[in-house]
UniProtKB/TrEMBL annotation:
GO terms for biological process: L-amino acid transport. It comes from the Bacteria. The keyword Metal-binding does not apply. Gene3D superfamilies: P-loop containing nucleotide triphosphate hydrolases. Keywords: Amino-acid transport, ATP-binding, Nucleotide-binding, Transport. Residues 2-233 form the ABC transporter domain. This is ABC transporter-like protein. Belongs to the ABC transporter superfamily. PANTHER family: HIGH-AFFINITY BRANCHED-CHAIN AMINO ACID TRANSPORT ATP-BINDING PROTEIN LIVF. It comes from Fimbriimonas ginsengisoli Gsoil 348. One of its GO terms (molecular function) is ATP hydrolysis activity. The lineage of its organism: Bacteria, Bacillati, Armatimonadota, Fimbriimonadia, Fimbriimonadales.
Amino acid sequence: MLDIQGINVFYGAIQALNDVTINVQSGEIVAIIGSNGAGKSTLLRTISGLLRPRTGSITFKGRDLTDCPAHDIVKMGISHSPEGRRIFTNMSVHENLQLGAFIRKDADVDKDMEAVLDRFPRLRERFKQNSGTMSGGEQQMLAIGRALMSRPQILLLDEPSLGLAPNLVTEIFNIVLDLNKEGCTILIVEQNANRALEIAHRAYVLETGSVVLSDTGKALLANPKVKEAYLGG
Ligand code: ATP
């Protein structure tokens, strides 16, 4: 479904991704784990067209994304819930969700908004609230809800559990599992490697911009090197 072949991505003179090759099949949950600065967010930003690879290619369902503007990439079915959530903090929950559907012209936007509010009852309670005044967990739910409003075929999730209390982390991961069961393919970037590997069909380990390991989530959970470096020994 999503095929990333040998991409090299730079910020000026700094190389953030080095010959990265990753693929995601339809229906999968694929996790990217790695330490701070490994290049995880850069990878997602490159897929969604916010950064361009200097070399290498990205194709989605056989279509080359390399020169596609970001809004066309959303239209093709790729939606990004960014790190730090990046919700519009001066707008209400309602307005944020509406903006998530900005590329759509069909009549089902209201129906989908209801579905998001059913999935995240807390967002229904806070519907008119200024989103900047919500808690971290609520803002994370809003970021995912907003990403769902474009009806993605693949959802790119950047650190959805960052800074959340353990019970909320469990809730977020359960929602990711539910979305996947309902047919949404997921590419998730996480520092919480344990949780991410538990739910991932497959995963890649990124170190200083390069893929150093890839396997099933289960195999990586049992891998001594991964245990030592990412799972607390
Ligand atoms: P974290 O989990 O800490 O967010 P990450 O794995 O997502 O880390 P990236 O944010 O992708 O890592 O950063 C990869 C590398 O690129 C880092 O060395 C970072 O300092 C560098 N980098 C990221 N954004 C920029 C930028 N706008 N300008 C220059 N360098 C950047």
